[in-house]
Design a protein that fits this description.
Number of helices: 3
Order of helices and strands: HHH
Number of domains: 1
Radius of gyration: 17 Å
Shape: flat
Length: 93
């Protein structure tokens, strides 16, 4: 079962790498946010798989903290993007 978890973790890592290559080719800010979210989500999945495989319970705490930070990063980006949009709109009028 441990080997299976390591294989699945490697598979998730490879799909993250392929997804990042596709997303990072596009230069938009939203694409960079999507890359960050993909990295965060994939990292959480890999950490949880490795935690189960190695029976290291503290790694679950690290994965949960990483998920929380990824959520805060998304909220900060949306707030930043919405405030930039408001400033651009108010400057036009």
């Amino acid at each position: 079962m441990t080997e299976f978890m390591f294989v699945i973790a490697a598979f998730v890592l490879s799909t993250i790498a392929l997804g990042l290559l596709g997303i990072l080719r596009r230069p938009g800010e939203v694409d960079r946010l999507m890359a960050a979210q993909l990295l965060g989500t994939g990292s959480v999945a890999i950490l949880l798989l490795l935690s189960v495989a190695t029976e290291a319970k503290p790694v679950i705490d690290v994965a949960l903290m990483l998920a929380l930070l990824a959520a805060f990063a998304a909220v900060a980006f949306v707030r930043s993007a919405s405030s930039d949009g408001e400033n651009a709109t108010s400057m036009r009028h």
